[in-house]
Amino acid sequence: MNKAISTEKAPAAIGPYSQAIEANGFVYASGQLPIDPATGAFPEGGIKEQTRQSLLNAQAILQQAGLDLKNVVKTTVLLADIAEFGAMNEVYAEFFSQPYPARSAFAVKALPKGALVEIECIAAR
Question: Cα dihedral angle (29, 34, 40, 41), rounded to 10 degrees?
Fold first, then answer.
């Protein structure tokens, strides 16, 4: 049975999807845009600030499920510009420690609302 996870500490879904779904001991968090849930806007700055906000949003969702970033086993990072990979990686490394989760990173043509980054994760109980 799937259980929806939802928190006001992360942006509400902007479409017909859940912030996260828990199933079979895993929490599948939807891609998190860098929207500050308090303001509804992107943080000022660039890729580093947006990466930080996306990860804070993912962290808030996991906390609602009783987990944290140490439970993450896989992430997917979507970048509007692959040239920002290094800067994104610097901030990403502040949130995760060894053993690091598996990760895929892709450049995409565009992200919703003109975001520079979107990050999704899978966490295990």
Answer: -170
What's residue 43's pLDDT? Answer: 97
Whether the link from the prior residue into 16 is cis, omega within 30° of 0, is no
Q: Is the pTM of this model over 0.85?
A: yes
Beta-bridge mates of residue 120: 76
123: enclosing H helix or E strand = strand 117-124
pLDDT at 28: 98
- Mean pLDDT within 48-73: 98
Nearest-angstrom CA–CA distance, 26 and 30: 13
- Asked if 27 contacts 67 with a C-beta cutoff of 8 angstroms, the reply is yes
